[in-house]
Amino acid sequence: IRDIGVTGVQTCALPISSTTALTITPDATGQLTLQANGVTALTANTTGYLNFAKQPQINGSEWPAFSAYATQNSQSISNNTETTILFQNESFDTSNCYDTSTGIFTPNVAGYYQINYSVIYYAAITTGETYAYLAKNGTFSGVGLMGWDVNGATYFYGQAASIIVYANGTTDNFRIRSAQTTGSPKTISSSSYFTGALIRSA
């Protein structure tokens, strides 16, 4: 443990057992730094803020989080054919758990995840309906939304939803499935997105 102040660096070793607690109050001139093998892992400044040198990990893995969106008009969905939607562009993917080529998110840490998605068809639709849902391991997860035609009016159909789901950190995976029954192929808008983030470990 190092107390870094204007007067220099002082280092001390403190014995800690299962029956004792460690409480340290830094002076008003510096910050408290926690190191392992000489490498700074955590600092606490005089205002009480904690700064981690690296992203916190769970059992050696970073907290998975990703955000991806579709390329405009790059995927055509045939009439009355349920399809996995591809979100080909990543804004970020902290643990490389999302595959842009398949549209599948496979979390590598067991826990509870916030999943959000939006599927928008880039077409003026005057008949039929569209739907989209979150699939876990390829099957309906219990969350889906539908859009439909009203009196022949023209709409750009879209669905959006948010849910908290559990993933086992190994085999569980998630994807967005969608279909439309407008009578002809329709493409996906770049306003469509798919995001996920660990909010609590198992």
SSE topology:
Elements: E1 2-5, E2 8-11, E3 31-36, E4 39-44, E5 50-52, E6 57-58, E7 61-62, E8 65-69, E9 76-77, E10 83-84, E11 89-93, E12 98-99, E13 104-105, E14 111-120, E15 129-136, E16 139-148, E17 158-167, E18 174-180, E19 186-187, E20 193-201
Antiparallel strand pairs: 1-2, 1-3, 3-4, 4-5, 6-7, 8-11, 8-20, 9-19, 10-18, 12-13, 14-17, 14-20, 15-16, 15-18
What's the overall average pLDDT, rounded?
81
Give the terminus-to-terminus CA distance.
31 Å
**Strand share of the residues?**
over 45%
With helices defined by DSSP (H or I, 4 residues minimum), what is the helix count?
Answer: 0
Percentage of residues assigned to helices:
under 10%
- Mass-distribution shape: elongated
Regions with pLDDT < 50 over 5+ consecutive residues? 1-9
H and E order: EEEEEEEEEEEEEEEEEEEE
Sheet with the most strands, sense and barrel status: 5 strands, antiparallel
| Tally of strands | 20
Order of the strands making up the biggest sheet = 2-1-3-4-5
Q: What is the structural class?
A: mainly beta
Describe the protein's architecture and organization.
There is one protein chain. The strands form six sheets. Strands 2-1-3-4-5 form a five-stranded antiparallel beta sheet, with no helix packed on it. It is mainly β and 202 residues long. The protein is built from no helices and 20 strands. Helices cover 0% and strands 50% of the residues. Strand 4 (39-44) and strand 5 form a beta hairpin.
